[in-house]
Amino acid sequence: MRTDRLFVCAVVFVLSLALLPAARAALTIEIIGSGANQVPIAIVPFRAEEGLAQRVSPVTAADLARSGLFRLVDAGGVNPLPHEPEQINYPIWRARGADVMVIGSVSKLPDGRYDVRFRLMDVVKQTQLAGFVYFAREDNLRLVAHRIADMIYEKLTGDVGVFSTRITYVVKRGSRFELQVADADGYGAQTVLGSNEPIISPAWSPEGTRLAYVSFEQKKPVVYVQSLTTGARQAVANFWGSNSAPSWSPDGKRLAVVLTKDGGSQIYIINADGSGLTRLTHSLAIDTEPNFSPDGRHVIFTSDRGGSPQIYRVPVTGGQPERLTFEGGYNVTPRHSPDGRSFTFIQRSGGRFNVAVQDFTTRQVQVLSNGGLDESPSFAPNGRMILYASGARGRGVLAAVSSDGRVQQRLTADAGDVREPAWGPLLKQ
Amino acid sequence: MKRLLLSVWMLGVLAACGTAPTKEQEGAAVEDRKPTVGVPDAPKPKPKPDPGIATKPLVEKPVAVNPLTDPKSILSRRSVYFDYDSNLVKDEFKPMITAHAKYLQQNRSAKMRVEGNADERGSREYNLALGQRRADAVKQMMTLLGAAPDQVETVSFGEEKPRALGHDEAAWAENRRADMVYQGE
Lengths: 429, 185
Description:
In chain A, about 10% of the residues lie in helices and about 45% in strands. Chain A is mainly β and about 425 residues long. Chain A folds into two domains: about 40-155, Rossmann fold (3-Layer(aba) Sandwich), CATH 3.40.50.10070; about 165-425, TolB, C-terminal domain (Neuraminidase), CATH 2.120.10.
């Protein structure tokens, strides 16, 4: 645990419903901490968005604030508000401390769609950094707002924005289990599978249109693949014994799964349609939680072959696994970073389970969370945040931490016990 | 006569009530038992010649008792408990596992699933594997004792279907368990 956490906990934003006026939130996001250098940004309310059921600029502002890398500069009291570059009185915004500002407008088109345009302006140099026009139906205005946030984020940080991505997780309400998919800000949650039996280990296909998961509806764990576009599902691993822990190959054609059909929990590779099974690991120990490397050449996994659960790496073609973790007696649930240079995992220390990251080259470990009961970490597709499950049993919440540990978010569901999150991939534009 | 019969019946009821149930019987379904009720202590009424009355002893119909569910049978016991992070089958469970192995040996058409469980601490998938290992340990013992491997499928529920819902050592101990379930149950 880093000792400067107390410092970064000083800044707390709570995104209230006032900021996000649209629908009732399925998840409320609380941010703790901030980036090392926050960009002061003024986001001016867009022209003609006031009367819309879904305003655009507050969603964009909330996205940027949630990242911890931006500080919102108040636009209140400026009259008239600028919507075009020539309307900007730069000294006012400079005096308020803004380095950059966002202006824009919304107008309804004859076909009922909306024209949404924005400009990102450099307040110091008084130049335009980016500008874009979107045409969207009213029910897509939130997505437009996320895409605008993505563009601003990318322009100012150099990293890809992930505000328009989605997450999946399992909610337990009473004895009912629901596999849900929501926007990365927790909005628009939809249940894609409901069951009276447990659902665990959801995993996004690389193109973001399918989920693999483990369902206990047949009174034993069976691996399914479900299309998010059609809802059709198929049991792809339903062998004698238990079937679990699916992980997609980066080309979306294969899955690594854990089967017990030959005795013990061992890792196999299977085609995404359930054909072509081959065995990857051969041990008398537990081998589980496989995760493909982004280049598709390796699988990292949890094994207790050395006497305690530790993380190993094996070529996808097979061979002798190499042990990767040595600190502590319980290191589990490894997941690659998108660039393949590091992996996140859960480390137990002193009876507490926390999110950690280890660099493949230096083998240096950094513990990032301090929830004590943290589980199921997964990287955002830009590698900047790690989503995980946290909180007391029976009332789990989702949380996220930046990969440098400075920014923490807490996503609270309005009801139920939330667990098993996974951050989805970047969607094709 | 009527009063006498009534008092005999009441004595019987009292005697029955005084019988402490054994631990295994706690919570078991109510069932018919042999009428041993209080008879030895009750005074026997003298037989009187009364042609209008005819008595007959109650005939016990032989009931086919399923040994798998008969609470008096060791086969009705199904749960094996384990220590933390352990799949070692403790000696106290060996007679029960032996009995199930013999049953499977004598009933080759019988099939069983052993469902392994784990307590809630740690990774869900790793706990699934720990539960599997417990189920496998029970199966291995049964196959050594005469059950055929294809009679016993081992599966795991991990920490997903806890019997005890608490978050303390007592609940965790209850959930570190493997259950034997016969096909059709």
